Amino acid sequence: MKIATYNINGIKARAQALPAWLDEAQPDVVLLQEIKSVDEAFPRELFEERGYNVETHGQKSFNGVAILSKLPLEDVSRGLPRDDSDEQARWIEATVVGKQALRICGLYLPNGNPVELQDDGTPVPGGKYDYKLRWMDRLHARAQELLADETPALMAGDYNIIPQAEDAKRPQAWLEDALHRPESRAAYRRIVNLGFTEAFRARTQGPGHYSFWDYQAGAWNRNDGIRIDHLLLTPTAADLLQDCQIDAEVRGREKPSDHVPVWVELDL
């Protein structure tokens, strides 16, 4: 089973590029981020005519996540638990059944910039960086539940986290950015260290592998990228891992997103 994550940076802008990639790559399941559309405006027919079941958790103009699946989607849930007041559309999960059941969780983790700190170095309450770290605390709690369930599961999406210096062309430029600050990386490690396998690093080591290139300053042409789109697998899902790749060439095509697809192949 081929499962991809892809921040498309707006479904309207990617109405041609996304179907073209689907036709070429033929993923079984795709987790989309930044659809930037309310549910009723999402162009379901583009994907249903290609054999995909579609579930969305949308929001007007911002955020928004979706699941496309050639297999039926069961037990769909929207919104990351533990904060009923959070109205941002950043989390969707469902179960797909191949040879066995797999719980798939799609996420769009908050960016967190600008970083606003108090005199003691802690985030300003209610600020964007504070929201990011609190959201990651909630993600940690959901991750623990997924591990306790023992059903194979993955959490995939745009994490807005540069885990290590080798995941950026110019790591020094990101030291004070919410994507690479020590608090952000520590929160990410706390989740991974629960027992998750980061699929790409389980298959590929070393620098020079990126999933995002800014539209500005010729970043793509200079390969000035960062790797912030990740797939975390529970131990029972990691046992099924066959491959993980970044489709970097997609960034060089017509009307691309600033992100590219990252996918895993599981023996399901």
Notable traits:
268 residues; alpha+beta; Deoxyribonuclease I, Chain A; six-stranded mixed sheet; 6 helices; 21% helix; globular
Mean pLDDT across every amino acid position: 97
Q: β content, as a range?
A: 15-25%
Low-confidence stretches are none
Calculate the terminal CA-CA distance, rounded to whole Å: 5 Å
Basic shape: globular
Strand order of the largest sheet: 3-4-2-1-12-11
Description:
- It is a single chain.
- A hairpin with a 3-residue loop joins strand 6 (91-97) and strand 7.
- The chain is globular.
- The strands form two sheets. It has a six-stranded mixed beta sheet with strand order 3-4-2-1-12-11. It has a six-stranded mixed beta sheet with strand order 5-6-7-8-10-9.
- 21% of the residues lie in helices and 24% in strands.
- It has a single domain, classed as Endonuclease/exonuclease/phosphatase (Deoxyribonuclease I, Chain A), CATH 3.60.10.10.
- Helix 3 runs parallel beside helix 4 (182-192).
- The chain contains six helices and twelve strands.
- It has 268 residues and is an alpha+beta fold.
- Mg(2+) binds at residues 7, 34, 158, 160, 258-259.
- The record marks 160 as: Transition state stabilizer.
